[in-house]
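[Discussion] Sanity-checking designs against the backbone

I'm trying to build intuition for which residues belong where. Below is a structure token string of 292 positions. I'd appreciate it if someone posts a full sequence so I can compare it with mine line by line.
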């Protein structure tokens, strides 16, 4: 079991987007707005049109995780992430993911009757919060999470036969995902929140005004080091507050069928105390409220 992964520092949010061919009314700039329903849409499905580049500037950002949300790629679609210090991606890149499937298996084995289970394991409606494409740079020697310093991020989307006639997505993030040295304590919870309004008529009929459901993840980090508490937890609380967004995975290495159900694009439901629990041990409770 891998430790919780939290992508909260995202240099691509402040980067300059360019490349491809994108509709003027649905531009690449929409990929950095917090709302995943605010879309960037390509002019057509040709590979020349469905790519983009982010210039993250000269601050040498550290990047090890990529997230693309609310996309319309089909199960035949592919994506490729490249990190480079060349503005044209010339020469040997810093990192190249190679082509990855746009969808991973989402159906839990045994959850559907024999004969109805999709042989590729993919049910595009089974993603709890819509289409999510996640890629984490594989672990390096000694099991450490790898990340690379690079100025430019290149994203290539490939789905030329998409019946929509275009490709689109609502949010893109790339950066370094923090994982604590000691994982979150046992007892972390996942809850679906249904804000629908329920009323009873005088005759006893039950009337429901349905509203979209969203998830809340709650967990406690019970053994943070001073650096993790003051350098990460405190900074997240101060810089993000309740308005900033992040992407959280409960276990980046578990099977995709479960991983997507335990991953969330979210904001802090509230800021919480960072507690000096004992000598060299700090605690911090995280409550993540889904952004839909």
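Best answer:
Here's mine. Compare freely.
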């Amino acid at each position: 079991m891998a430790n919780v992964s939290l992508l909260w520092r995202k240099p691509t949010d402040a980067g300059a987007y360019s490349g491809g061919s994108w509709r003027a009314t649905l531009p690449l700039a929409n990929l950095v707005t917090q709302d995943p329903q605010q879309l960037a849409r390509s002019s057509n499905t040709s590979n020349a049109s469905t790519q983009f580049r982010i210039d993250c500037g000269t601050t040498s950002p550290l990047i090890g995780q990529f997230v693309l949300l609310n996309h319309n790629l089909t199960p035949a679609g592919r994506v490729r992430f490249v990190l480079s210090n060349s503005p044209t991606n010339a020469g040997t890149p810093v990192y190249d993911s190679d082509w990855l499937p746009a969808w991973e298996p989402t159906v839990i084995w045994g959850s559907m009757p024999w004969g109805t289970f999709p042989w590729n394991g993919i049910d595009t409606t089974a993603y709890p919060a819509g289409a999510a494409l996640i890629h984490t740079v594989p672990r390096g020697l000694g099991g450490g999470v790898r990340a690379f310093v690079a100025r430019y991020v290149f994203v290539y989307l490939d789905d030329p036969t998409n019946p929509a006639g275009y490709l689109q997505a609502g949010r893109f993030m790339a950066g370094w995902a923090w994982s604590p040295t000691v994982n979150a304590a046992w007892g972390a919870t996942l809850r679906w929140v249904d804000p629908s309004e329920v009323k009873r008529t005088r005759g006893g009929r039950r009337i429901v005004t349905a509203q979209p459901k969203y998830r809340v993840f709650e967990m406690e980090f019970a053994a943070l080091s001073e650096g993790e508490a003051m350098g990460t937890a405190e900074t997240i609380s101060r810089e993000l507050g309740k308005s900033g967004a992040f992407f959280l995975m409960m276990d980046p290495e578990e099977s995709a069928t479960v991983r997507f159900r335990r991953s969330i694009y979210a904001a802090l439901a509230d800021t919480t105390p960072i507690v000096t629990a004992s000598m060299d041990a700090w605690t911090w409770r995280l409550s993540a409220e889904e952004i839909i």
